[in-house]
Amino acid sequence: MINISASKKIFSGLTAIGILAMFLFCPLSASADGTDGEFVEISDAAGLAALAKSPGGNYRLTDDIYLDSGWQPIPFSGKLDGAGHTVYNLHVTSESSDTRVTRDSDLNEHDSRFAGLFSVAEKAEVTDLNIKGAYVEIESKDNCFAAIFAGYSDNTVFRRCSVEGRVRLTNNGVDSGVGGFVGFGTGVFEKCNADVELVFKDSNTSELCDQFMGSMLACGIGSINLCKVKIAGYASCNGYIYSGAMTGLYSDLGTPFSNSRITNSNANGQINYYQGSRSKKAHCAQFNGSLRTHPERRENNKYSVKLIETMYNSNLLFPEKCNDPDYEETVIPSTCKNQGYTEHKCRNCEYSWIDSYKPLNHDETEWITVSDSDNEHGGIKRKYCKKCGILLGEEIIPPKSEKTLSDSFTRNTIWAVAASSGVLAILEILVLSRSRKKKRENIGANQDNSELKKRLSEGKDSGQKSILSDWKKDGQVRFLPDGKDSGQMNHLSDGKDSGQITIPPKNSKK
Ligand SMILES: [Zn+2]
Ligand SMILES: [Zn+2]
C-alpha cells in the first residue's frame, strides 16, 4: 500500500490512487454480485424500456418507476437490481412475439407466447424489486402464459421481490396459464411475496386444453423458500385444470431440476374453479395444484386456501359478481405524505381495485447552500419541500482545491491507470466523495433497504447514518425518529444526482 507521509494537499491524489489500488487488488472489495460489469442506472420508464436493447446487461434502479403509458413485454437475461424500489402501474395488453416451447401435463410440446414485465426471462437475476398496481390483460388465440414478472422463465432467480396486481388471460390455445411471478418454466424464488388476483378463461370449446394457475409459478418447477402468497383465483377451463395458491402443476416436465424444494413458505386466499372435462379430476389443491416431483421436498410450509368448485358461467368464476359492471372512479391525489391512486369500484357488486399510483407530490425549493466548500473541505447543499419542509435532496460541493487537483492531476493520472482496468466510472465518485465518506458511519455493506427502513421506522437508529451498499454506490440516510414526522433516505449515487425514499412515521403503520 502507498504510504502517505507528506503534505495532505499534495498527496490527496495519491491517497485516491491508494484507495483505488485497494479496490483493484483486494479480492474482498469485488462487487458483491460477482460480476465484473458495471450496473447501468435506471430512473424512469424510458430507462426500463431500454433494457430491450441490451437484455443481457446489468441494471440498477435508482428510483421508483411509474409506467403510465402501457408496457410491451421484453426478453431479459441480465441482472436487475431494484435496490428496494417499486415499478408502478405495469399494464400489459399484448403478448410478446417471442415464442418458446412449453409442455403440457402429458409432456406434449407446444410453441407458446408470453406476457409480463418480461416475456421470457432466461438465466436472469432479479433482486429487491417490487411491482405494484400491475394489470396484465391478455386475449390470446395461441398457447399463452401470462404473469406479472415473466411469462416464461428458464432458471431465473428472484430474490426479495414482490408483485401486487391482477392477471387476466382469455385463451384459445391448448396449453396456457396465469401466474403471479412466472407463467411457465423453472426458477429460484427466495423471500418473495405475491398478492394477486388471477383470472383464467378458456375460450377454446373444441379441444381439451391444459390450464395452469399459481401465484409464484403456474406450471413448472423451482426452488421456493421463504415466500408468501395471497391469491384470489378464478379459473374456468373446458379441458383440465391445475391450480394452487403457490404453484399450479409443480413438475419438472421431464427435465430434472436439481433445486426443486418448497420450504418455509405460506399461502392464503381462495381459488374458484370450473373444469369442463370430467374424464380426470381437477388438479386443484390449496398449495400446489398438482405435485408430480419429489413431494418429500416440501418442508415447513403453511397454507389456508379456500377451494370452491363451481358451475360454468357462475359469477364465482370472476371477481366481478354482477353481469353488468358499472364502475365509479375515484382519484385520490398525491400529497406530501401519501401516494395518489385511482380506485375503481362497481356500483352494482362492489368489486374494486386500485391502480394508477402517483408519486408523492412535494414542491421543491431551489438548492440551498448549507455550508460552502473551501480549499480543503467539501460543502453541502440541500433542497426541501416548500409545503412540508422535508429534505428532498442533498449534494456535496467538492473542495475547491481537490477539484482543481483532480482536474489537473488526480483525475488524469487515475483515469490513465484505470483505463486498462475498466473501472472508469467509479474513480470520479471515489475522488469526489472521499472526504465525506470519512465522516460517516458505515452500517454495513450490501445493506438491504427494507431492513434499513424497518430499523429506522422502529426508532432503533436516529440521526444521520450512511450506507455503502457496495463500493460503487454511496448512500446516505437521514431520519427524524420522533414518530410524528417521516424520515427519508437519500441516495447520492454519483455525487451529482440524488434520489429519495420516504420512510413513514413509525406510528402510522397500516
Ligand atoms: Zn359489479
Ligand atoms: Zn412536501
Question: Care to describe what's here?
Answer:
The protein has 510 residues and is mostly beta strands. It folds into 3 domains: 55-319; 322-361, no CATH class; 443-510, no CATH class. The protein is 13% helix and 44% strand. The chain is built from 5 helices and 40 strands. The strands form 6 sheets. Strands 1, 2, 4, 5, 10, 11, 14, 17, 20, 23, 24, 27 and 28 form a 13-stranded parallel beta sheet that branches. Strands 3, 6, 7, 12, 15, 18, 21, 25 and 29 form a 9-stranded parallel beta sheet that branches. Strands 8-9-13-16-19-22-26 form a 7-stranded mixed beta sheet, with no helix packed on it. A hairpin with a 7-residue loop joins strand 30 (327-332) and strand 31. Helix 1 packs parallel to helix 3 (400-419), helix 1 (8-25) packs across helix 4 (424-438) and helix 3 (400-419) runs antiparallel to helix 4. The longest helix has 20 residues, at 400-419. It is globular, with a radius of gyration of 26 Å. Mean pLDDT is 79; it is low at 1-36, 402-448, 459-487, 490-499 and 505-510. One zinc ion binds next to loops.
